């Protein structure tokens, strides 16, 4: 039976942990995996523009010996020509997997239910699982054993926040999420993550007070306006500016590293000097996108390596 990666919420904790270990191994021993996807073709169906996602998947698949076909839904004038379910069925005739970067999570669900090949969520309005996987690889490389550590997320409660909460729950990592009023993450996912973390002796706190960000190991932020949101910056700048990640917040919180999924807007959600500082893990996160995604592909498409993604 095929497995999709739409969100890590329905994946086992052992598998998520195993993927992190597998990704780190592919990073340090690439020769072991050079032909792991030989003969496999992946279709990358993108409704949204991308830098890191497209390039990291394309080069990563090449490194594994596979081939990626990129389809730009907007630029290629594919949008509206065919129903998504028919496209999914067609993709399954030719490719061994589908990578989809889409506007709505429901599009991913339709793709997954109308094809026999795995579907990987490369970003949607609700989740960004490949980014969260790369982030926890980066955290493990930076601070070691993850269980019991604390990650703070500061800014807009969005798809990245949701996926960070899910992987944090699997890994037993505490979270403090600080957002302006009205910008908190989805309460249903907060409740789910809190329940999972409670079984592991951990906690997740959502606050609207930036001064609650204390005693953390790392701080993470994201852009204040998500891709596709046409809200003028001036309308929200005053609301978000108290949540800027800067040197003072790093010092007050005790965080040793700072993270951002990019694109980053210097001196808005994060100071430019912090981006360029020794505390920054931003480019390490970007590199780890490729290694994390390669681990997912190995798990989904190559039975030889599937068992490695079980811890």
UniProtKB/TrEMBL annotation:
EC code(s) of this entry: 2.1.3.3
Cross-referenced Pfam families: OTCace, OTCace_N
Top EC group: transferase
Domain annotation Aspartate/ornithine carbamoyltransferase carbamoyl-P binding: ranges: 4-141
InterPro entries: Asp/Orn_carbamoyltranf_P-bd, Asp/Orn_carbamoylTrfase, Asp/Orn_carbamoylTrfase_sf, Asp_carbamoyltransf_Asp/Orn-bd, Orn/put_carbamltrans
Top-rank taxon: Bacteria
Domain Aspartate/ornithine carbamoyltransferase Asp/Orn-binding: 148-299
Molecular-function annotations in GO: ornithine carbamoyltransferase activity
Keyword annotations of the record: Transferase
Family indicated by similarity: Belongs to the aspartate/ornithine carbamoyltransferase superfamily.
Name of this chain's protein: Ornithine carbamoyltransferase
């Amino acid at each position: 039976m095929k497995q999709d990666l739409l969100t890590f919420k329905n994946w086992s904790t052992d598998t998520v942990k195993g993927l992190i270990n597998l990704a780190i191994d592919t990073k340090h021993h690439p020769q072991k995996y050079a032909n792991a996807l030989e003969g496999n073709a992946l279709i990358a169906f993108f409704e949204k523009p991308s830098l890191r996602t497209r390039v990291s998947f394309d080069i990563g698949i090449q490194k594994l010996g596979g081939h990626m076909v990129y389809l730009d839904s907007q630029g290629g004038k594919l949008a509206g020509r065919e129903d998504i379910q028919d496209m999914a069925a067609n993709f399954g005739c030719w490719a061994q997997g589908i990578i989809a970067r889409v506007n709505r999570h429901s599009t991913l669900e339709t793709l997954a239910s109308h094809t026999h090949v795995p579907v990987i969520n490369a970003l949607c309005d609700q989740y960004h699982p490949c980014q969260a996987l790369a982030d926890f690889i980066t955290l493990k490389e930076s601070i070691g054993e993850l269980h019991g550590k604390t990650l703070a997320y500061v800014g807009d409660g969005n798809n990245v926040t949701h996926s960070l909460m899910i992987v944090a729950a699997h890994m037993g990592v505490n979270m403090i999420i600080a957002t302006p009023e009205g910008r908190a993450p989805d309460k249903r996912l907060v409740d789910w993550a809190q329940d999972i973390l409670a079984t592991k002796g951990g906690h997740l706190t959502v606050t609207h007070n930036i001064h609650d960000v204390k005693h953390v190991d790392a701080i993470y932020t994201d852009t204040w306006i998500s891709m596709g949101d046409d809200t003028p910056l001036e309308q929200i700048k005053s609301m978000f500016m108290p949540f800027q990640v800067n040197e003072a917040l790093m010092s007050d919180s005790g965080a040793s590293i700072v993270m951002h999924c990019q694109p980053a807007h210097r001196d808005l959600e994060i100071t430019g000097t912090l981006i360029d500082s020794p505390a920054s893990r931003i480019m390490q996160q970007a590199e780890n996108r490729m290694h994390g995604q390669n681990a997912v592909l190995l798990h989904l498409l190559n039975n030889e390596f599937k068992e490695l993604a079980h811890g």
